[in-house]
From TrEMBL:
Annotated compartments: Cytoplasm
UniProt protein name: aspartate--tRNA ligase
GO MF term (any one): ligase activity
InterPro entries linked to this entry: Aa-tRNA-synt_II, aa-tRNA-synth_II, aa-tRNA-synth_II/BPL/LPL, Asp-tRNA_synthase_2, Asp/Asn-tRNA-synth_IIb, NA-bd_OB-fold
Domain Aminoacyl-transfer RNA synthetases class-II family profile: residue ranges: 242-539
Source organism: Mucor flavus
Membrane-spanning residues: none
Reaction it catalyzes: tRNA(Asp) + L-aspartate + ATP = L-aspartyl-tRNA(Asp) + AMP + diphosphate
Length: 547
């Protein structure tokens, strides 16, 4: 039913009343009418202002909308739940010729720098390579919130970045990728840093010369580095050092396998101290004790008695020596070889000399990038060596020392100081950082060393030196069981503890010789690092068992 319509006369009367009479039915005066008019204008102005403010707020809210939420943030912990076909790029493959391409990289944030709240620059790192990344606020894809998030990502976090390859206006001199950079489109944190960094990688990567120019710069000492070794190992220099360490083993294997040697693995838990002496670690072994091998010496010789002919091993060696020096550790990697010869132990010595020349030549040619990187921090002189190795008789070395004013006996062992000084004299006279001393005094060598009857008091044994410090000891070994027993007695070795070794020679063994290098010594001396701990991943010495 429709509402009854109002009588038009009544309607007009009501409007007149509203216009000319107030709520109490009194006529509105002209003055009151004007006031009412003003009040209305005021109310209208107020409403207009409120509407304007509301419109402005709406606009502000609209611009604050984070339109980039899907482009940044922390990824959930990877629990291997999905696989995509995404290609993860090696940043070394990125260059200006690929400008315009969108790539995905997983990198570490080395540094980040915000400029004015709308932009952020990154240096991203992948192993030893770095590339610049840039993110800039725009109207539809990169929000202010996203850039703010970027600025807050801690250095050393691992991030997954999608970015467009851009040719920079100028070369990026601070990065290894100089001719391209990444315009960041997406950035997600894969692994964040939850601890305070003990030092910055910049501080840990400085050469000594930088401190001469500016002594105020932060210096990271060796102990701090070793206490925070994982962080320290991230420096470009350390990556290169351990690539060189790996290279030494690679080349050692390559050379020897090429020459028909066979790789062996001898026990490290043994029942007796292999070389006598007290520098052996004792460990519990069920109801008895065992010892950690001081070298593979006895076992590699036993393999020769087993007719393996030419063997080598790369394995840890344990020495319980309380030596707190720049070149001794309680655990190091031994590169050992042993070989049967036909007539003279020099057949073996020649193989060892060729091995070192091969090693030095190939380190220089195949690992020149690494050498250059390390040189930037450790500033060492190029390694000099002769194509035909210099071999001096021990007595010649003693003569050179004496001529230079050093008091030394004919059969004295070389002290570290004399060893280094002789290296200096050899370098001056023969221009080589690598040489061999042959025919060491018998009395200072282990019991299994073959004496040299033509040179009484001397033996068929040798040491190799790099930059004036020992890297290898080797010798012809006694392969006759009776003579071996006799010599062991002279050295007061308890025969019962080495009986299986002696027995190996009772059933016949060919004449043989060999030697053992210390891996970390080779790396330290070749690269002039000055301390063996720098060429050991997690060094062990009398004062350090951690990390
Ligand atoms: P050094 O006289 O320097 O103490 P060594 O004569 O005891 O050495 P060997 O037992 O002949 O050395 O060991 C062979 C090689 O092993 C050495 O030339 C060296 O390269 C390495 N080496 C020996 N001892 C250590 C050690 N404590 N730490 C690191 N490397 C070592």
């Amino acid at each position: 039913m429709s509402a009854p319509t109002q009588d038009p006369v009544e309607e007009v009367t009501q409007k007149i009343e509203e216009l000319f009479f107030d709520d109490e039915g009194k006529p509105i005066t002209k003055k009151a009418f004007k006031k009412l008019q003003k009040d209305k204008e005021k109310a209208d102005r107020k409403a207009a202002t409120a509407a304007k403010i509301a419109a402005e707020k709406a606009e502000r809210d609209a611009t604050n909308v984070d339109y980039s939420v899907d482009r940044y943030g922390k990824l959930p912990m990877n629990q291997s739940q999905t696989r995509t076909d995404t290609k993860y790029e090696d940043i070394n493959t990125i260059d200006a010729s690929r400008a315009g391409e969108t790539v995905t990289v997983r990198v570490r944030v080395q540094t980040s720098r915000a400029t004015g709240g709308k932009m952020c620059f990154f240096v991203f790192r992948q192993n030893v390579s770095t590339i610049q990344g840039i993110i800039t606020v725009d109207e539809s894809t990169i929000s202010k919130q996203m850039v703010k998030y970027c600025v807050g990502i801690s250095p050393e976090s691992i991030v997954l970045v999608q970015g467009k390859i851009v040719k920079p206006v100028e070369e990026v001199k601070s990065c290894t990728v100089t001719c391209a950079e990444l315009a960041i489109e997406k950035i997600h944190v894969v692994s964040e840093v939850n601890a305070r960094l003990a030092f910055s990688l910049d501080d840990a990567s400085r050469p000594e010369s930088a401190y001469e120019e500016d002594p105020q710069l932060v210096r990271v000492n060796l102990d701090t580095r070793l206490n925070n070794r994982v962080l320290d190992l991230r420096t470009t220099t350390n990556h290169a050092i351990f690539r060189m360490q790996s290279a030494v083993c690679l080349l050692f294997r390559e050379f020897l396998t090429e020459r028909g040697f066979m790789e062996i693995h001898t026990p490290k838990l043994i029942s007796a101290a292999s070389e006598g002496g007290s520098n052996v670690f004792k460990v519990n072994y069920f109801k008895t004790n065992a010892f950690l091998a001081q070298s593979p010496q006895l076992y590699k010789q036993m393999c020769i008695a087993a007719d393996f002919g030419k063997v080598f091993e790369i394995a840890p060696v344990f020495r319980a020596e309380d030596s707190n020096t720049h070149r001794h550790m309680t655990e190091f990697m031994g590169l050992d070889m042993e070989m049967a010869f036909n007539e003279h132990y020099h057949e073996v010595l020649e193989v060892l000399e060729d091995l070192i020349v091969f090693l030095l030549t190939n380190l220089k040619s195949r690992f020149s990038n690494e050498i250059e990187i390390i040189k930037k921090q450790y500033e060492f002189e190029d390694f000099e060596f002769l194509p035909k190795t210099l071999r001096l008789h021990f007595s010649e070395g003693v003569k050179m020392l004496r001529e230079a004013g050093v008091e030394v006996g004919d059969f004295d062992d070389l002290s570290t100081a004399n060893e280094k000084f002789l290296g200096k004299l050899v370098k001056e006279k023969y221009h080589t950082d690598f040489y061999v001393l042959d025919k060491f005094p018998l009395a200072i060598r282990p019991f299994y060393t073959m004496p040299d009857p033509a040179n009484p008091g001397y033996s068929n044994s040798y040491d190799f030196f790099l930059r004036g410090e020992e890297i290898l000891s080797g010798a012809q070994r006694i392969h006759d069981a009776d003579f071996l027993t006799e010599r062991a007695k002279v050295h007061e070795v308890d025969i019962s503890t080495i009986q299986p070794y002696i027995d190996a020679f009772k059933i016949g063994a060919p004449p043989h010789a060999g030697g053992g290098f210390g891996l970390e010594r080779i790396v330290m001396l070749f690269l002039g690092l000055g301390n063996i701990r720098r060429s050991s991943l997690f060094p062990r010495d009398p004062k350090r068992l951690e990390p």
